[in-house]
């Protein structure tokens, strides 16, 4: 039940407590950079990483694979220790490898419209971290009378 609620407000801009103090997690939608009618997937990938870095063990845009205007690759390690290479295109995000910087052309994995949906399907630890961050944010709003 709680996850259904969390999914409905997933695009809210969140503030998450970090060990260095408070930081604002930028909204993926706000960080999109478009060049005419084409989005620069390299910049989109950076926005994706910044949006969910707080809820995974490690995540970064691949420097070894060829990123371009129409495709970018993101390496992610879940809180459970599983590593994935993700492909980001106009079609969405999908797993293309089960190790950093690995693309397995024989994989035929499902595209996800959002990084939230993809990570939700891969990592219970992500789901828990995101839920906890959202609850903390809601509690701060309640305390501030908003």
Tell me about this structure.
The protein has 146 residues and is α+β, with helices and mostly antiparallel strands. It has one domain (2-143): Hypothetical protein (hspc210) (copper amine oxidase-like fold), CATH 3.30.2280. The chain is built from four helices and eight strands, in the order H-E-E-E-E-H-E-E-E-E-H-H. It has helices at residues 2-8, 41-52, 115-122, 124-143; strands at 14-18, 21-25, 34-35, 38-39, 58-61, 72-77, 83-89, 92-97. A four-stranded antiparallel beta sheet has the order 5-6-7-8, with helices on one face. It has a two-stranded antiparallel ribbon with strand order 1-2. Strand 3 and strand 4 (38-39) form a beta hairpin. It starts with a helix and ends with a helix. The model is unreliable at 1-35 (pLDDT under 50).
Structural topology:
Blueprint: H1 2-8, E1 14-18, E2 21-25, E3 34-35, E4 38-39, H2 41-52, E5 58-61, E6 72-77, E7 83-89, E8 92-97, H3 115-122, H4 124-143
**What is the tally of beta strands?**
8
The helical percent reads: 25-40%
Class based on secondary structure composition and strand pairing: alpha+beta
Q: What is the ordering of alpha helices and beta strands?
A: HEEEEHEEEEHH
What is the CATH-assigned architecture?
2-Layer Sandwich
Major sheet:
4 strands, antiparallel
Question: CATH-wise, what's the superfamily?
Answer: Hypothetical protein (hspc210)
As a percent range, the share of strand residues is 25-35%
Using only C-alpha atoms, the radius of gyration works out to 16 Å
Number of domains: 1
CATH top level is: Alpha Beta
CATH topology: copper amine oxidase-like fold
Oligomer: single chain
Number of helices: 4
Quick check: average pLDDT? 80
CA(first)-CA(last) distance:
24 Å
Outline:
globular
Unreliable sequence segments: 1-35
